[in-house]
Amino acid sequence: MAYTPSREDFDRYMVPNYAPQKTIPVRGEGSRLWDQEGREYIDFAGGIAVNSLGHCHPVLVQALKEQADKLWHLSNIYTNEPALKLAKALVERTFADKVYLCSSGGEANEAALKLARRWAHDNYGERKAKIISFRQSFHGRTLFTVSVGGQPKYSQGFGPVPGGIVHAEFNNLDSVRELIDDETCAIIVEPMQGEGGIVPATQEFLEGLRELCDRHNALLVFDEVQSGMGRPGTLFAYMRYGVTPDILTSAKSLGGGFPVGAMLTKEDIAKVLVLGTHGSTYGGNALASAVALAALETIDTPEVLEGVQRRHERFREHLERINAKYGVFREIRGMGLLIGAQMSADYEGRAREILPLAIEEGVMALIAGPDVLRLAPSLVIPEADIDEGMQRLERAIARLVDNA
Ligand SMILES: *Cc1c(COP(=O)(O)O)cnc(C)c1O
Question: Which residues hold pyridoxal 5'-phosphate (predicted)?
Answer without folding.
Answer: 138, 223-226, 281
